[in-house]
Amino acid sequence: MTDAAHGSLFADLPAPGAEEDFRPLFANGAVRIERIVSHHHASPPGFWHEQADDEWVLLVRGAAVLAFDDGHEQALTPGDWVLLPAGCKHRVARTEASTIWLAVHARSADTASTVI
Predict the structure, then answer these.
(1) How far apart are the first and last CA of the chain?
(2) How high is the pLDDT of residue 115?
(3) Interior angle at CA 6, CA 33 and CA 62, nearest 5
(4) How far is residue 23's CA from residue 76's CA, in Å, rounded to a whole number?
(5) Cα 53 from chain centroid?
(6) Which residues contact 8 (CB under 8 A, 6 or more apart)?
(7) Residue 2 contacts by C-beta under 8 Å, 6 or more apart in sequence?
(8) Which residues are registered as beta bridge partners of 92?
(9) For position 51, what pLDDT does the model report?
(10) Are strands 31-38 and 21-27 parallel, antiparallel or unpaired?
């Protein structure tokens, strides 16, 4: 018998609530993967995420707009992804109902990241 784990990003989706839902899917010392479900959520006015780790985010379902501290906004639709390097100030400007994200957090390496 194998020790492989499996699941579905669409299993046990939460009902709309006051906060986004974060569900850990995998973690070890260097990488953390989570599913995020948003229902018309946005970061509070004036709040900026500025994380110590690199984050790669895939929009699986719905739609969202990320805003950056330089004034740039990035619209995301299903299949779009964005790489947020450690220290990149960003916020969620808006999301549609039932938006599903897949986020991969990785410790920032001493060398430059490579996007293939």
Answers:
(1) 34
(2) 61
(3) 55
(4) 21
(5) 12
(6) none
(7) none
(8) 66
(9) 93
(10) antiparallel
